[in-house]
Amino acid sequence: MITTVARAPVSGLAARAPSSSCEPSNPHRNRVDLALAADPAHIATARREVTAHLRCWNLGHLAADAALITSELVTNAVLYGRTETVTVHLAKCGTLAEPQLLIAVTDQSPAAVPAPCSPAAAEEHGRGLLILQCVASCWGVVAKPRGGKLVWATLAVKTPDHGHETELSPSPCCAGSQWAPALA
């Protein structure tokens, strides 16, 4: 499924993407792409759409972490991506034993690979990738063949039945590193 928000309305308010709905004809869809205008007003739209799709996939328990990751990745793409459109990719990946959720965002920036930094305490920006490191199972960057990049992160899919363990086993990060290049 591809949802597109091409441009913000003239009034400057965020355009609303079509409301996500579960598709009864194909409830097992494993991937969603959301194209948004590279406008700060659409960061909230990206969070809402990701949350709605996770609920459709019965992964609502990942919504808060996925929305935070989405927000950080889309914010970076909007602020630094030098592009008119930002695309959010959401996919179920991993293995049956260790399923994962892949969240990826593409932009057209030829800039170098983003790296976490250590901002001064009074600075308002610069903590996005540090937050990503704390929340995601793993993350990475893939250069797109036609320019730009795709920044991705994975979340381990823990079911509410098993609760949240205090100590996580190592995540099969290879799922994100294997699936992300296909999205680029």
Automatic annotation (TrEMBL):
Alphabetical UniProt keywords: Kinase, Serine/threonine-protein kinase, Transferase
One Gene Ontology molecular-function label: protein serine/threonine kinase activity
SUPFAM superfamilies xref list: ATPase domain of HSP90 chaperone/DNA topoisomerase II/histidine kinase
A Pfam family per the record: HATPase_c_2
Domain Histidine kinase/HSP90-like ATPase, first and last residues per copy: 37-134
Protein name, as recorded: Histidine kinase/HSP90-like ATPase domain-containing protein
Lineage: Bacteria, Bacillati, Actinomycetota, Actinomycetes, Kitasatosporales
